[in-house]
């Protein structure tokens, strides 16, 4: 047990709480490298679309945001399967957006490359069921998913590209502790 006590799902603790007991420290909303890279690449395609500059190659996408080419190829296979991008063949080929940039949400991209926005032990929040004192916990998990949807599904890649974020997102950004770690 070099990494600390093992938890039921195989994770280990990263610290000790005030009682001397192990405290599990993990990120709760994990924005994976796949999502980060996909959103960054989609922003490049949105910019190209706005400028009318045509398809962008994987090599160009990779270079512009310093993204690993092979990883980006796998991500674009997922984006293509979700109809978020279209591939164009030929010497001047590459990728273009699969629909208008105002109609592609960050949530669409997230789901295309990483699956559902929120899961609890591999279940969708509304599929969880608890007994006793935890009976109402599924309601909280559903609310967490709803808050993610509110931000990610209401923000298009065009909003993100221009910085003209939805009002609710701007409100969240101005909360007193929004930019603080906790």
Features:
182 residues; Arc Repressor Mutant, subunit A; 2 domains; two-stranded antiparallel sheet; 4 strands; 43% helix; disordered N terminus; WH_DNA-bd_sf; Rrf2 family transcriptional regulator; Tscrpt_reg_Rrf2; WH-like_DNA-bd_sf
Helix content, binned percent: 40-55%
The main β sheet shows up as:
2 strands, antiparallel
CATH-defined fold name of the largest domain? Arc Repressor Mutant, subunit A
Give the averaged pLDDT, no decimals: 85
Organism: Terrabacter carboxydivorans
Pfam family, one: Rrf2
Protein name: Rrf2 family transcriptional regulator
Region (Disordered): 1-21
Describe the 3D structure.
The protein is mainly alpha-helical and 182 residues long. It has two domains: 33-112, Winged helix-like DNA-binding domain superfamily/Winged helix DNA-binding domain (Arc Repressor Mutant, subunit A), CATH 1.10.10.10; 116-173, no CATH class. 43% of the residues lie in helices and 7% in strands. It has seven helices and four strands, in the order E-E-H-H-H-E-E-H-H-H-H. The strands form two sheets. Strands 1-2 form a two-stranded antiparallel ribbon. A two-stranded antiparallel ribbon has the order 3-4. Helix 1 crosses helix 2 (58-65). It is globular and about 65 Å long. The two termini are 27 Å apart. 18% of the residues are buried. Residues 1-27 have low confidence and may be disordered.
């Amino acid at each position: 047990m070099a990494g600390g006590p093992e938890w039921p799902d195989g994770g280990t603790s990263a610290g000790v709480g005030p009682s001397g007991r192990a405290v599990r420290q993990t990120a709760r909303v994990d924005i994976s490298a796949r999502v980060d890279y996909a959103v960054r690449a989609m922003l490049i395609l949105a910019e190209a679309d706005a400028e009318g500059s045509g398809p962008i190659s994987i090599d160009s996408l990779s270079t512009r945001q310093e993204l690993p080419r092979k990883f980006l190829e796998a991500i674009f296979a997922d984006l293509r399967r979700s109809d978020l991008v279209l591939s164009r063949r030929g010497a001047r080929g590459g990728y273009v957006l699969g629909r208008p940039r105002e109609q592609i949400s960050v949530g669409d991209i997230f789901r295309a490359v990483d699956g559902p926005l929120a899961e609890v032990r591999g279940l969708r929040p509304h599929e969880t069921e608890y007994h006793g004192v935890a009976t109402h916990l599924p309601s909280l998990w559903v609310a967490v998913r709803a808050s993610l949807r509110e931000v990610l599904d209401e923000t298009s890649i065009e909003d993100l590209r221009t910085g003209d974020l939805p009002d609710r997102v701007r409100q969240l950004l101005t909360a007193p502790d929004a930019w603080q770690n906790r």
